[in-house]
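Narrative summary of target 7.
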Amino acid sequence: MNRRVISIFSLAAWAAAFVAAPLLSGGRAFAEDIPGDVVAGRVLATKTCSKCHSISAAQRRTRLYEAPGFDEIAAKPQTTAISLRAFLQSSHPSMPNLVLTTAERDNVIAYILSLRQRSN
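Modeled conformation, tokenized:
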């Protein structure tokens, strides 16, 4: 019985460490699970998306349209790599049809999700 109690405590400690690790690392563990290059994503967003979207909170005042800023998109609880990938692969009447390579899409997704991690 004593061995079982130790085992349960060991499992609880491991689970707590697993949950706390991303929080203690500033969210870096989440970024490692997302393919894509954050810097390349920001460069692409600046060239392609910044006419309508602010790509950072600092640029929010300069956008021409009412398209949400990337930091606003990142802050939504439903925003995930999967939801962004689905969105970017679908056409939308209010957006130009962007044809992105898989790498470009992954880079933009990594950049958008990095904005969430910085704000947490």
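Confidence is low (pLDDT under 50) at residues 1-32.
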